[in-house]
Amino acid sequence: MSYHLVTCFKILKGLTSITPTEFFYIVWWFHYRGHSLKLYCPDSRINIRAHFFAVRVIQVWNTLPPHMVAVDDVKSFARGLDSLSSKFFSTRY
Fold first, then answer.
1. Mean of the pLDDT values across residues 66-82?
2. Which of 19, 56, 90, 91 is the most buried (most CB within 10 A)?
3. Distances (CA, A) of 46 to 29, 39, 42, 57, 59
4. What is the mean pLDDT of residues 64-92?
């Protein structure tokens, strides 16, 4: 899962050729507790959509602490992921 979170981080920070709106709906209209890059999780009517990368990573991404999302480089983000508790990661998708 940490690889997927790093990929999500790269997309949201503009470090890839993929624009964030191609995969994610960023919640701009309402501020939730936590960080400012909360993602909206669309409903999945079919099973294949529920296991798609952009849906699978949202729940974990939204639970990250604000200081993790605020970093600007990938190495700092990856180091922060390594230091987090295992409650953010599961082997199931």
1. 91
2. 56
3. 27, 20, 12, 17, 18
4. 81
